[in-house]
Write a structure and sequence with these properties.
The complex is a heterodimer.
Chain A lengths: L1 H4 L4 E4 L8 H11 L6 E4 L5 E2 L2 E2 L13 E4 L6 H14 L5 E4 L10 H17 L2 E3 L5 E4 L4 E2 L18 E5 L2 H12 L9 E4 L8 H10 L5 E6 L5 H12 L4 E5 L4 H10 L7 H10 L3 E2 L3 H13 L8 E5 L2 H12 L11 H9 L6 E2 L5 E3 L6 H13 L5 E6 L7 H13 L8 E5 L6 H9 L3 E3 L2 H20 L5
Parallel strand pairs in A: 1-2, 1-5, 5-6, 6-7, 10-11, 10-12, 12-13, 13-14, 15-17, 15-18, 18-19, 19-20
Antiparallel strand pairs in A: 3-4, 8-9, 8-11, 16-17
Helix pairs in contact in A: 3-4, 6-7, 7-9, 10-16, 11-16, 12-13, 13-14, 14-15
Chain B lengths: L6 E3 L2 H10 L7 E4 L4 H11 L3 E6 L12 E5 L2 H18 L7 E6 L5 E10 L3 E8 L4 H4 L2 E5 L4 H9 L3 H6 L8 H17 L3 E11 L7 E2 L2 E6 L8
Classes of the chains: A alpha/beta, B alpha+beta.
Chain lengths: 477, 233
């Protein structure tokens, strides 16, 4: 799979000079990310696209092509495969093929099935591995490959550093949504590897899970799944990988109607959703319900250490949000607001204003809206030093008289001093767009911020469930 | 392909015997095929009173509906009477049914009802299930499941996902033994792992007492695949 994510030479059949066409955006993405290898647009009419010289046919490309991307209309597959046959007989260089175009076997029409069969005939003959059809392709932000035709609307330069988040999607559109949603965050998320597999005519979930298992730049794996035909094989692969790295799944088809829709979408057979659910739980796979929960959870796994247990201290700057968050924590049996030592209580009280509420109820502090930056940071530090605390949710609403830039910078400084290894802090910085400055500083420095308590709690709960799975199966891994 | 066509349900005695051989305690039952004095006496000596009596026939699915179940049989005379009533009703209401006899079963006192089961998913194979027993199980959707084989931790998780958790933590002053459910689940998983031809098991209820009396499976049905040759046999 290395050559799929780090190919020497990429040819694009269906390349276009029309900025509204997929065959243009793919080339523009590659240009913007400064893919260092050769890009060969295949287009009869144009002489160049975005500075890359065009070729009339695959036969004309002299240089090496590791990866071939097909974005042309599906009915042209017969001509293109004939040309590929010829190229493979002469040069034998293509190792991977991404068929982005749709209208293949997923339509379940004889024509669609025949087109996919034609594609696979050449692939099988020459041992070319196929991604798709009916997908958006592949991204590797370290090797700077991007065959997708997704426009996130966010300039590439404004993204953060490449993360350890690898995402794998059965649906191209859902994958695009995850890309775009990630790009719209306070600090845009730059995924590590990103792949949409569509019809899975060849490369499928298990192939990729097996690859990501040992891929060093992958710290956490996100999956959007509709269904997979070989349940036992999938379960075995998920188990092996999740003993090493967290896997977060958005599996659709919970409802009978949804399962029906999944079946006709990528042509996959969706098994009983309740059995999938059981299989995920049994194998330490974290199942999420929404795209936002997916990205929140992936970021938390990517950035923070796993907690030692479910003792979650709630450290709030305001009463209302604190109570709101307490309800959210109480909802999950995995999470407990812990009793801390008298010494911690005394030190915490000494670090705060007299009216602060210290540990009523246990595992909870409300430092009040008058709390200064120092109060915020010092108290958090004291809570993190308590041995009975595994993780902290920090909530602040940032009133106008609290300098948010200074708050963010002091929190970053405190985190970087690392007096509490192994303890995640979920920073819930409420008050919407107003706090974008503080969140931006914190996110750029690797802290995990959230805009609401329930999202912070959800991420905390997911981390905790996975940590418990790992602890339980320590010997197996 | 209709799965039902290729499966057969074991009768109560066979089901109970299989469960028992894998360490799941099932209600004591004896099959009789006559109501002679010595048959009834030895049965009563073994089981005591009261007992439940039901027809045993693969051709009769809903035994109560055709008058082939008698509850609360209190003594030997009532036993004889029940035997005759069951046989007469079977002959009259399901004339073509092949009758193997009548099963006499200890009638157990009321307890906390747990559902245990096995089902087969076309993709993932056999799964074990646990939940609240009785007839509300469908309504409450309070069943958790796991793929086999399960571990002790899986079994504990299954309990934690259902209202069984509260019952094991203590319910109106009675605390039901979590270990009994865990053991039964582990045994069930072991049983179906060793018998890949078992497609379905329905134990409803497994009665728990919370006072030292042993948990006991009451109504249990095991469904197995038949081999191709006996498909319609």
């Amino acid at each position: 799979m290395d050559q799929l994510f780090n190919p020497d030479g990429i040819a694009i059949v269906g390349a276009s000079s029309n900025p509204s066409k997929a065959g243009y955006v793919a080339i523009r993405n590659m240009k913007e990310k400064a893919y260092p290898g050769n890009v060969y647009p295949i287009n009869v009419r144009e002489s160049e696209i975005l500075g890359y010289p065009c070729y009339a046919s695959l036969k004309d490309v002299q240089g090496n092509i590791d990866l071939l991307v097909l974005i042309m209309p599906s009915k042209m597959i017969y001509t293109v495969m004939d040309e590929l046959d010829q190229r493979m007989e002469e040069k034998g260089d293509v190792k991977f093929l991404v068929c982005a175009a749709a209208d293949y076997a997923e339509t379940k029409t004889p024509e669609g099935i025949d087109r996919q069969e034609r594609l696979m005939r050449t692939a099988r003959r020459f041992g070319i591995r196929v991604v798709g059809p009916n997908c958006i392709g592949v991204i590797d932000n370290r090797s700077r490959v991007d065959t997708t035709f997704v426009d996130t609307g966010v300039p590439f330069t404004s993204f953060g550093e490449p993360t350890g988040i690898t995402f794998l999607s059965q649906s191209g559109a859902l994958a695009s949504a995850v890309l775009m949603e990630g790009a719209s965050r306070v600090v845009p998320v730059l995924y590590n590897k990103f792949i949409s597999i569509g019809n899975m005519a060849d490369v499928d979930f298990v192939d990729l899970l097996d690859y990501f298992e040992t891929d060093e730049s992958t710290r956490v794996i996100g999956i959007y799944m509709e269904g997979y035909n070989d349940g036992k094989r999938l379960a075995a692969s998920l188990r092996r990988v999740s003993l090493k790295k967290p896997i977060v799944v958005l599996k659709v088809g919970r409802s009978a109607l949804g399962a029906n829709a999944a079946n006709s979408h990528t042509g996959s057979m969706a098994g009983s959703d309740r059995v999938y659910d059981a299989m995920f739980k049994q194998n330490g796979v974290i199942r999420v319900g929404t795209i936002n929960e997916m990205i929140d959870t992936l970021q938390a796994f990517d950035r923070m250490p796993l907690p030692a247990g479910g003792n979650l201290f709630l450290y709030s700057q305001a009463g209302g949000p604190g109570i709101y968050c307490t309800d959210a924590i109480s909802h999950y049996q995995e999470l407990t607001m812990p009793v801390v030592s008298d010494d911690t209580k005394a030190r915490l009280a000494a670090s705060q204003l007299p009216m602060a509420n210290i540990c009523h109820p246990e595992g909870y502090a409300d430092i009040t809206a008058s709390a200064s930056v120092r109060n915020h940071v010092d108290g958090l530090q004291i809570v993190l030093e308590e041995k009975n605390v595994d993780a902290v949710i920090f909530i602040t609403v940032v009133p106008t008289f609290l300098p948010q830039k200074e708050l963010a910078e002091e929190l970053v400084k405190m985190e970087q001093a690392v007096n509490h290894p192994g303890k995640p802090v979920y920073y819930c910085i409420m008050a919407g767009a107003y706090t974008a400055l503080a969140r931006g500083i914190m996110e750029k420095n690797g802290l995990c911020t959230f805009d609401s308590p329930e999202r912070a709690v959800m991420a905390a709960r997911n981390m905790c469930v996975y940590a418990a799975f790992r602890a339980r199966h320590k010997k197996e891994a | 392909m209709d799965q039902k066509e290729n499966t057969v349900a074991l009768n109560e005695l066979e089901s109970a015997k299989l469960l028992h051989s894998y360490g799941i305690n099932a209600v004591k039952s004896i099959l009789i095929d006559n109501c002679r004095k010595e048959t009834l006496e030895s049965t009563a000596a073994e089981l005591g009173f009261p007992v439940v009596m039901k027809v045993v026939s693969n051709d009769i699915l809903h035994k109560t509906d055709v008058g082939c179940v008698v509850l609360n049989v209190a003594d030997r005379d009532a036993m004889e009477c029940a035997y005759r009533v069951i046989m007469e009703n079977a002959a009259r209401n399901v004339p073509n049914a092949k009758i193997e006899g009548v099963v006499v079963q200890q009638m157990l006192p009321k307890g906390f009802e747990v559902l245990l089961g096995v089902s087969t998913d076309p993709q993932f194979g056999q799964v074990v299930m646990a939940g609240l027993g009785g007839i509300l199980v469908e309504l409450l959707q309070a069943v958790s499941m796991r793929l086999i084989p399960i571990t002790r931790e899986d079994a504990l998780d299954m309990i934690a996902e259902t209202p069984l958790q509260q019952a094991c933590d203590g319910l109106r002053g009675v605390r039901y033994d979590r270990e009994e459910i865990v053991e039964a689940l582990l045994n069930l998983s072991r049983m179906v792992e060793a018998n890949p031809d078992i497609t379905e098991v329905d134990i409803n209820p497994l009665l728990l007492y919370g006072d030292g009396r042993k948990a006991t499976a009451v109504d249990a049905v095991v469904v197995r695949k038949t081999s191709c040759c006996t498909k319609n046999g």
